[in-house]
């Protein structure tokens, strides 16, 4: 998923002189927190400034190979479309790479923060570019320590420049194959969801975050049939049930057999063991998240696999007419089915992947150019612009958003706070 794309600057005077709008808009508000307090890595872009590009302007033709970066700013930076994003950032926000390995997509999915140790966990790319995993090779699961990150930043006296802490790979039992999602901690354990590999089944498993990293598999079949390749999981905040997505990427990535079931969304009751389908009819359901009250669910449906591979024009082609859409549902609290499906957001770049929700109801998703943020009404208010694909991210307590970006992990130190996923039991 390392989509390296050109940063397409939009031409024309219409894009110049936009930087003052945030001041203008926040200064007249009663909210004083953002007055005169634009973080140094923030670039404000008034949507009205690009509402018309004009006949001689430069338009984007491809949502993967070209980014929307009208100010032609070097990533990483904060792209601010609405003053509300400044409240998420706070006045002293920074964003930087904190771990990198240009030769290995070590930070793809399954981001989990363990508050007990301040470790941040992640899975390498399973079956895609620079993941070095396939039918014959498992993906890796690793971690960095955020205390070490804090120390490295302090030691370097680095205001915004990158640091590079050590990545530690976990030695996990063979039952964990091609990790693609995760949440928690759940009763102190990492809750992982795996895609399986070859004949080995996809599964949901608890993993001890501390050595010896022993594993308890909780589910690996639907009444005797294997899932296709399980993708992502969240625990419902009020009823404690597990909700997860199953999709055909493992087959399309040539490490799983032909699908035996449709791509759909399931619910698992970890106490009773019962499994049921709660939503279907989506092309490729992917990331999943709930609002804090549990009444709303978001499910990502991604477009062509080429977007996932970052292989434009590759084996599976690249068709921008497929959805790159986050759907919103109501969760029927009796049956747990997802009802009243509607479009929440369609991303302008790449595909939306993992999703997180903050305490104010803003929705964050990894996309082709970084992490994009929509308010609860579905308006894109800003981006953590990386200039490369992010598949997923997780909050690490108040004010820290840790972003997986394949060959890098970025830390954004901001004002917002994510939902406390560890309390969802
Ligand atoms: C676009 O370019 C053409 C050719 O140079 C010119 O005649 C036309 O006026 C331009 N249009 C605008 C809106 O600037
Ligand atoms: C960061 O350190 C790792 C080794 O821990 C190394 O492989 C990698 O190249 C380093 N990244 C950069 C950008 O130097
Ligand atoms: C950081 O600042 C301290 C004190 O000013 C100095 O002793 C140290 O050498 C600096 N470190 C780096 C990496 O610049
Ligand atoms: C790991 O092993 C310990 C000791 O047997 C046990 O208490 C714990 O539940 C195990 N954790 C998992 C996730 O299997
Ligand atoms: C893209 O998908 C649409 C809808 O399925 C289809 O009509 C169109 O032919 C596809 N285009 C290409 C280039 O495959």
From TrEMBL:
Give the highest taxon in the source lineage: Eukaryota
Signal peptide range equals 1-24
Pfam families attached here? SGL (PF08450)
Q: Which UniProt keywords apply?
A: Signal
Tell me which species this is from. Answer: Dentipellis fragilis
KW Signal (keyword) present: yes
InterPro entries hit by this protein = 6-blade_b-propeller_TolB-like (IPR011042), Oryzine_lactonohydrolase (IPR052988), SGL (IPR013658)
Name of the protein: SMP-30/Gluconolactonase/LRE-like region domain-containing protein
Q: Where is the SMP-30/Gluconolactonase/LRE-like region domain?
A: 170-399
User: Where are the bilayer-spanning segments?
Assistant: none
Is Transcription there in the keyword field? no
């Amino acid at each position: 998923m390392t989509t390296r794309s050109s940063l397409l600057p939009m031409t024309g005077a219409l894009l110049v002189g936009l930087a003052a709008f945030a001041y203008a808009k926040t200064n007249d508000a009663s909210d004083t927190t953002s007055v005169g307090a634009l973080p140094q890595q923030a670039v404000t872009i008034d949507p009205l400034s690009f509402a018309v590009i004009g006949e001689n302007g430069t338009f984007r033709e491809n949502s993967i190979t070209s980014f929307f970066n009208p100010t032609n700013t070097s990533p990483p930076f904060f792209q601010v479309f609405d003053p509300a994003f400044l409240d998420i950032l706070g006045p002293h926000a920074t964003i930087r790479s904190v771990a990198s390995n240009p030769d290995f997509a070590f930070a793809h999915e399954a981001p989990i923060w363990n508050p007990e140790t301040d470790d941040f966990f992640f899975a390498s790319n399973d079956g895609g570019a620079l993941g070095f995993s396939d039918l014959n090779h498992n993906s890796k699961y690793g971690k960095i320590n955020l205390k070490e990150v804090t120390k490295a930043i302090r030691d370097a006296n680095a205001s915004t420049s990158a640091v590079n802490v050590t990545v530690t790979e976990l030695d996990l039992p063979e039952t964990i194959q091609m990790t693609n999602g995760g949440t928690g901690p759940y009763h102190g354990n990492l809750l992982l969801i795996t895609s399986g590999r070859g004949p080995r089944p996809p599964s949901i498993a608890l993993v001890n975050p501390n050595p010896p990293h022993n594993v308890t598999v909780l589910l690996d079949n639907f009444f005797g049939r294997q899932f296709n390749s399980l993708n992502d999981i969240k625990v419902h905040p009020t009823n404690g049930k597990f909700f997860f997505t199953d999709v055909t990427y493992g087959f399309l990535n040539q490490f799983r057999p032909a699908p035996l079931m449709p791509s759909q969304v399931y619910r698992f009751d970890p106490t009773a063991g019962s499994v049921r389908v709660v939503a279907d009819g989506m092309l490729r359901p992917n990331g999943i998240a709930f609002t804090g009250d549990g009444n709303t669910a978001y499910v990502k449906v991604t477009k062509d696999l080429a977007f996932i591979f970052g292989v434009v024009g590759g084996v599976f082609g690249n068709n921008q007419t497929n959805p790159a859409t986050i759907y919103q549902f109501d969760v029927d609290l009796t049956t747990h089915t997802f009802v009243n499906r509607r479009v929440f957001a369609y991303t302008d770049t790449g595909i939306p992947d993992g999703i997180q929700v903050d305490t104010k109801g803003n929705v964050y998703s990894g996309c082709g150019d970084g992490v994009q943020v929509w308010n609860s009404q579905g308006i894109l208010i800003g981006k953590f612009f990386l200039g490369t694909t992010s598949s997923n991210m997780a909050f690490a307590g108040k004010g820290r958003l840790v972003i997986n970006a394949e060959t890098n992990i970025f830390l954004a130190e901001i004002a917002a706070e994510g939902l406390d996923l560890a309390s969802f039991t």
